[in-house]
Amino acid sequence: MRTKSNMVGSGSSARISRRSFVSCCLLAPAYLSVLAGAGSSKTATPIRSIEDLNQPSMIICGETECVSLRMGQERLPKAQFVSFATPADCYAALLAGKVDAVAYDRPPLEYAAADNELFYVLPDSLGEGHIAVGAPFKNRELMDKVNEFIKQYREDGTYQQMYDRWVKTINPQMPDIPKPENPINAGNPLIIGNDPQNIPMSFVNGDGSWSGFDTEFVQRLALFLNMDYQFESLYYDALFPAVESEKLDLAVGNLDKTPERAETMLFSDDYIDCPAGLMILKSRWQGPTDSSSSTPAAPEVKAESEQTDAASTEKTEEEQAN
Q1: Residue 129 — φ and ψ, nearest 5°?
Q2: Statement: the pTM of the whole predicted model exceeds 0.85
Q3: Would you list the DSSP string of 44-95?
């Protein structure tokens, strides 16, 4: 979730595979060059609650133009805030001890924490985000169809399956989604902007193929629309001017919908539930141990457990009756 800000700091990132994203970010020269100017390693004071971060000595980072940073500033006004160009740079800064926490969307943070045992996502959220598809105003009819798809995929269970696959599973595989056989726009594909720097939402594999939640969303949307498409790879902060200048038909890149942005472009309904969170090093967490930073069990897993409990209860009652 991003918005324009005057944060200090910058960074850059090369495309890398999903699995090596978190583990390699500390070692890659590009990331080390970013961290060189971030100052010396910080003292690892314990953190017992989100309020412990509301101190002048605490440094919180996030991706440039990230709404999560703005939410963090509002919740923790005494802390210092810096920004980097990509989530990988933020994770690297946290691992190197240059910052105390990363403010970002909870789904990517939860994936990072599941993939790297050194990370911990605080139980409390900073606020609720509204992640949507963006489009030029001229594409209002197209956006109506996008909203039809979002409504359908939330109601038929596809959304929950995708969320479980990309947020709760390490190294998931892209499902085999067929392309439209006879697209109504053959020879004139939709140009869809996407930022391939945001694991697990969207990223590029080592073989050059696209993957992630947003990628699957676009593939399913294209099938629903019966339209061909092609991705336009852009850094996140370049997606907004590209939509406003009508260089893109749609932007599906974890865009946060805000009233200010809605004055310059169309937004769809929310296509993913995405509160803002904070991630720290697990070694610093000394809060309640009964709270968990991980996502809840998948509904189907919970249902299976409930069915087992119900069967056990029925069996016990039958035995008592006999």
Answers
A1: -100, 165
A2: no
A3: ---B-SGGGG-STT-EEEEETTBHHHHHHHHH-TTSEEEEESSHHHHHHHHH
Distances (CA, A) of 203 to 14, 17, 210, 218, 221: 11, 8, 6, 13, 18
Could you give the CA distance from residue 162 to residue 159 in angstroms, rounded to a whole number?
Answer: 5
Tell me how far CA of residue 98 lies from CA of 42, 45, 270, 276, 313, in angstroms: 6, 13, 34, 21, 53
Write the pLDDT tens digit of every residue in 104-114: 999 999 999 98
Q: Which candidate, 80, 127, 112, places its Cα nearest to that of 281? A: 112
Q: DSSP secondary structure string, 175-224?
A: P--PPPSS-TTTTS-EEEEE-TEETTTEEE-TTS-EESHHHHHHHHHHHH
Which of 255, 257, 273 is CA-nearest to residue 154? 273
pLDDT in tens, 13-47: 333 333 333 333 333 333 334 444 444 466 689 99
* Cβ contact 121:278 at 8 Å: yes
Distance between CA 181 and CA 186 in Å, rounded? 10
Which residue reads 């080390």 in tokens?
32
Q: For residue 314, give Cα distances in angstroms to 306, 308, 317, 319.
A: 12, 10, 5, 9
Residue pair 134/265 in contact (Cβ under 8 Å)? The answer is yes
- CB count within 10 Å of CB 165 equals 17
Structural domains for the chain: 20-128+275-284 (3.40.190.10), 130-273 (3.40.190.10)
Residue 97 burial class via C-beta count within 10 angstroms: exposed 0-12, middle 13-18, buried 19 and up: middle
Is residue 119 within 8 Å of 106, Cβ to Cβ?
no
What confidence category does residue 289 fall into, taking pLDDT thresholds of 50, 70 and 90? Answer: low
CB 125, CB 115: distance < 8 Å? no
Mean of pLDDT values over 88-98:
94
pLDDT higher than 90, residue 50: yes
State the Cα torsion 64-255-111-16 to the nearest 10°: -70
